[in-house]
Amino acid sequence: MENNQPIVGIRSTKQRQAILDVFSDEQVHLSADEVYLLVKPTQPNISLGTIYRNLDLLTRIGALTQFILADGTRKYEKTSSHHHHLVCINCGETKNIPGCPLDREIKGYSKENEFHIVRHSFEIYGYCSSCQTK
Amino acid sequence: MENNQPIVGIRSTKQRQAILDVFSDEQVHLSADEVYLLVKPTQPNISLGTIYRNLDLLTRIGALTQFILADGTRKYEKTSSHHHHLVCINCGETKNIPGCPLDREIKGYSKENEFHIVRHSFEIYGYCSSCQTK
DNA sequence: TTTGCTGCAAATCGTTTGCAACACC
DNA sequence: GGTGTTGCAAACGATTTGCAGCAAA
Lengths: 134, 134
Description:
Helix content of chain A: 25-40%
Radius of gyration of chain A: 17 Å
Strand content of chain A: 15-25%
CATH class of the largest domain in chain A: Mainly Alpha
Oligomer: homodimer
Shape of chain A: flat
Number of domains of chain A: 2
């Protein structure tokens, strides 16, 4: 959305609350469309535009965090302590990994290259246990 | 493109060669549009469609590797030994990092979760030396 | 009453695809 | 000559945006 407007007054609407409710669990990782489908039952008239605008705003105020999978899919999750993801190539199930791989060695390498690290992404792709048996 | 056709006979055309030439250096990381701009001078009539079709084909035969940045940008590079990227948030300059962070600890965690790892992504974002001074 | 928020529809961006002409082998 | 490849334009999916009406505060 590339909206760099300063955030002034934020109102609490039922649409926004319904979207936030969907992300109550930290293990919830959803695309805009998935959020739309989940919110639709309680907010039948909600539009995809509203979903996108809210996901963007909630991300900008820090309530949600956005990340992009290797296939380009954009997903959102509730903001929580630093972690990474384990993503099933088959069913898309996404789990949080507590550890972080940004180790001393790599930090050292970046320093050598005079690179100032701001953030990083790390996702593991493979098959979850139930998809392996199929 | 989601093209799962078996690859039969591949021909050498000047368009395809021009695209490959752009990726002669391993430190070249480009989007489809950037390739288009670079190839245009020698192939004035080339179309973006041809660029996309060739990037896809060259990726499927393993000559190129595709990766997606945290902002959703799709990039291509010449296939080479396993590595990761250092990406400047400001100018977009992308450098290869030789090390790999997929360490014992994380592999162990995946095993605990009965997750079969196939591949992973890891990119570091920040500011390169020249963008820091500006 | 003010102004942020919504639904709707149109617009945009990156990418894919159908097709007829073309050019490799 | 056969078929892989190309340029072109239309189609596509995900996301963004303009606008007028609505609703929180």
